[in-house]
Structures are given as structure tokens and as C-alpha cells.
Amino acid sequence: TLNIWTRGEKKNLPVMVFIHGGGFAGGGSSDPLYNGTHFAAAQDVVIVTFNYRINVFGFVNFGTIDSAFEDSGYLGLKDQIAALTWIKENIAAFGGNPDNVTIFGESAGAISCMMQMVIPAAKNLFGKAIPQSANSYMYNTPEYSAEVAQTYMEMGGAKTMRDMMKKSSDELRSLYEKVRAARITEGLKDYLPTADGKFLPKNPFKALKAGDARSIKLLTGTTADEWRYFLMYFDNFFELFRDNPKNLSPVLLKYKARPPQEVYQSWLKNRPDTDERFEDFVEQVDWRVGQELAAEYQSNFGDVYYYLFSEQSPDEKLRSCHAVDLPYTFNVGDEIVPNPKPNLVKVVQESLAAFAATGNPDNETIPHWVKYSAGNRQTMELNSKGCVLHKDLNTQNLNALRYLYES
């Protein structure tokens, strides 16, 4: 299903296609937070949202059980391509320009954006991407996703895929909840897309570095305190993972040369002794370093702009957590930000819409936004108190941890 918001009778407007988040396990375009009414009313763009298959229906690699199901580890990504194809063929009827399509998304939606940039089947369906809070290392190897599939078979009492296919959708949803409860510390990564080297490159991050997304213009970044989002669900969130950080981090899970604790201790050497050092480490490893490296790589092949969203939630515990930027993107309040500040809503929407229209986020609400590159690491800090362009804002951490991605 697709939802489309357009402004009046205007024609040939830039098209912005939003991909919802939810860890590839939950979420949907019906979430009131993703209502495009205010965005489309304020800017000359067409806003589109859609659904795609998630969790056991869209991202469990049963191909390791039966080769006839080899695409089951990324069916949700195929749904996204189906939506983009429909948009390419039909959006002109809704006032949109099929040759000026931008994909944007947050969390799993942002990871989806990064994946679609390097998936051959998505080529020419869009020309610009705005991943909000992702990094392109967020995928599963066939070996890891095989473990998840085997858990489903065992907990579902299925000996063959024929047994699994006999289950109703309600039974499969119930099985998903059962598996999720059993794998609570692994669940954050269990439903990442499977990179099998056929549909999705074996290492999407290396594909980006090699130029597989050449000519796609990129606007990307993170919030300042991504992982604090999970404190809404676990008061002891960091304690759950401090002794075994690889359970939290797909990056550390893939990096085999050194144990995760050794990586952490090495990073600590030149860091202040604070109570939040582990939180800072997780923030860097799974969010900021990966996304900044993705920006660096893509800057060799197309225009790139980078941001840091530092506006804080009214909840002091959450600070500038994961998803704190979404109420400002759509001008819709939620539990993290009940009342988004109008001046920052304007900054965010003007910047995103300008980028969708021209490939450049410059607009009258912010200082001149300089392009990001390896030789000139410029980051626009977005905040209601004023937006500031910084150079080398996170270069120390980038240099200290990039080996996790490049080894």
C-alpha cells in the first residue's frame, strides 16, 4: 500500500519517498508520526510512504533451510523496489516528477536507503537519498541469518519449509513474538537484510566504496545520542551489553581480528574517564563512524552533505536520541518530542525539500552548507538555538575506529 500527499494542482514536483523504520521487525506507514500532510503543505514536494514486509515475513533467510526460499532474507527490500517502480511509472498523475525522486528514511528506513543505493535492481529508480541515522554496515551475513532461520524452524516445530508454509499469518506472527523473546539481546540485529552477493552485494559498505552508487547525491547524518532511545524500553540497557558488546553491535560481530572488549579498551586509552564512556563507544561504532565513512566514500562519486542533529527531547534521559528528529521532519509530535519547535521544523523541512529539489540543501534558514569530503569534513549541526557548520567535528573517533569497517 502507498500513501501520497501532494500540494494542489501543481505539476512536476520533486518526489520524496519515505521508508519507515522499526528494525526490519516492526513499524508501518500507518504510524501517525509519518503523516505527510504538514510536510507537503509547507513545501513544494510530493510525499509518499508505503509498507513493506518485515520480520519473519520479509527478513528471515529461510534459503539456508531450502534453496527455493533464497530471497526470503530480503523480501522487504524487494517490496521497496516494487513501490519505487510503481512511483516511477505513476507519480506524474499525482503531480510528481518521475525523474526527480529522492528516497529518505530513518533507522531501518535509513539502512534501506543505503542498501537501495547499491542494489543493482534499484538502479535509476531514484537519484538522491537522505538516510537519517543509519550506517551501511547494517546487514547480516548468510551464516548469521542461517542461525536465525534455524531458531524459527526449531521453535516453530517445523522440520521442512513445507511445514513452515502451512502456518497461518497469525501463527507466524505469534512465532515471531516467541523467537524475539528468546533472543532479546540478539534481536536488534536478527532482521537485518541478508547480503548474499546475488540481490544484495556481499558487503554493501565495500560496494559503496567501490562506486556502486556513483552519481547518487547523498544527504545524511545522525542524532547526537542515538542509543539513548533504548532507555525508553530498558532502564539497564547498557548493562545488558557492557560485558559482551558484540551482542549490541553488528559491526563488532563481523570484526574478527580482535575481541570486542579489546577494541573497547583500545578506544578508551585517549578518552576522558566518565560514566558514559561505553555509551559513547557504542554511539561511535554503530552510528557516527559508519555513517561518516559512508559519506566519505560516496563523496568520491557524487555530492554529499552531512549533518548532526543535536536538539534534545524534553525527556532529559533521552537527550538527542534515535528518532528525535522525526517529529521535526514531519511536524508531528510523538512521545519523544510532543511539541516540535516551529523554527527547527522549518529548518529541517526547508533543508530536506531543497535537497530533494536540487541536490543541494542550502536554504535561507541555515548558514551556507558546504559539501562533505575526505579532505574537508564539514558537518551542519541542526539545533533550534542555531545551526552551525563544523569542520572535523568527529574526525578523532573516525580515525580511531574506521579499521572496524575497513578490515
Molecular structure report:
This protein is of the alpha/beta class and 407 residues long. It has a single domain (2-406), classed as Rossmann fold (3-Layer(aba) Sandwich), CATH 3.40.50. It has 16 helices and nine strands. It has helices spanning 37-42, 55-58, 75-90, 108-118, 142-155, 161-165, 169-182, 204-209, 237-241, 250-254, 260-268, 277-298, 326-330, 342-358, 395-401, 403-406; strands at 2-5, 13-19, 46-50, 96-106, 128-132, 217-223, 304-309, 378-382, 388-391. It has a nine-stranded mixed β-sheet with strand order 1-3-2-4-5-6-7-8-9, sandwiched between helices. It is globular and about 60 Å long.
Features:
alpha/beta, 9 strands, single chain, 37% helix, nine-stranded mixed β-sheet, 13% strand, 407 residues, Rossmann fold, 16 helices
Poorly predicted runs? none
N-to-C SSE string, H for helix and E for strand: EEHEHHEHEHHHHEHHHHEHHEEHH
Tally of alpha and pi helices: 16
Question: Which CATH architecture?
Answer: 3-Layer(aba) Sandwich
Q: How many domain units? A: 1
| Structural class designation | alpha/beta
Content of β-strand: 5-15%
How is the main sheet built?
9 strands, mixed
CATH topology: Rossmann fold
CATH class: Alpha Beta
Largest sheet, spatial ordering of strands = 1-3-2-4-5-6-7-8-9
Beta strands, count: 9
Rg of Cα set: 20 Å
